[in-house]
Amino acid sequence: MDTVSVKGLKVDATIGIFDWEQEIFQPLYIDLEMRWDNAKAAESGDIHDALDYAAVSSFVVELIESRPWGLIEEVAEQIAAGLFSQFQVPGARVTVNKPTAVPAANSVGVSIVRGEF
Ligand SMILES: Nc1nc2c(c(=O)[nH]1)N=C([C@H](O)[C@@H](O)CO)CN2
């Protein structure tokens, strides 16, 4: 099957396991690879046959901004759950990067694969 991707989606989040992290915003960068059959949209030219990456991006931003978070693993899991329930994606790889978490590292993050991938 084909894929639709979103790379480097920046969202400022309240996130972290320490009390001080719950008082600030830190940037998260989200990468998504989502399984989708793109042939139908290519044939029809209809956005309703496509997996709308703009709608997916808006969903991810709204989800992350909706509440404070602890582990970035929780963010990744909830994004994957929404891709299944709201967008009928059959499988996805979700990566959440938190570049300011470890000053000596360019970035740290987690990646999960859920469903048929
Ligand atoms: N696997 C993870 N490790 C750590 C996380 C996390 O979300 N997942 N979070 C932290 C802290 O919040 C850190 O970002 C602040 O220094 C530590 N390890």
UniProtKB/TrEMBL annotation:
Lineage: Bacteria, Pseudomonadati, Pseudomonadota, Gammaproteobacteria, Alteromonadales
Pfam families: FolB
Catalysed reactions, as listed in the record: 7,8-dihydroneopterin = 6-hydroxymethyl-7,8-dihydropterin + glycolaldehyde; 7,8-dihydroneopterin = 7,8-dihydromonapterin
Role of this protein: Catalyzes the conversion of 7,8-dihydroneopterin to 6-hydroxymethyl-7,8-dihydropterin.
Entry EC no(s): 4.1.2.25
SUPFAM superfamilies: Tetrahydrobiopterin biosynthesis enzymes-like
Protein family (similarity comment): Belongs to the DHNA family.
Species name: Aliidiomarina taiwanensis
Involved pathway(s): Cofactor biosynthesis; tetrahydrofolate biosynthesis; 2-amino-4-hydroxy-6-hydroxymethyl-7,8-dihydropteridine diphosphate from 7,8-dihydroneopterin triphosphate: step 3/4
Full protein name: 7,8-dihydroneopterin aldolase
Domain annotation Dihydroneopterin aldolase/epimerase: ranges: 4-114
GO BP term, example: tetrahydrofolate biosynthetic process
Highest taxon of source: Bacteria
Keyword annotations from UniProtKB, A to Z: Folate biosynthesis, Isomerase, Lyase
Gene Ontology cellular-component annotations: cytoplasm
This protein's record includes keyword Isomerase: yes
InterPro entries, alphabetized: Dihydroneopterin_aldolase, FolB_dom, GTP-CH-I_C/QueF
Top-level EC class as recorded in UniProt: lyase
SMART domains per the UniProt record, alphabetical: FolB
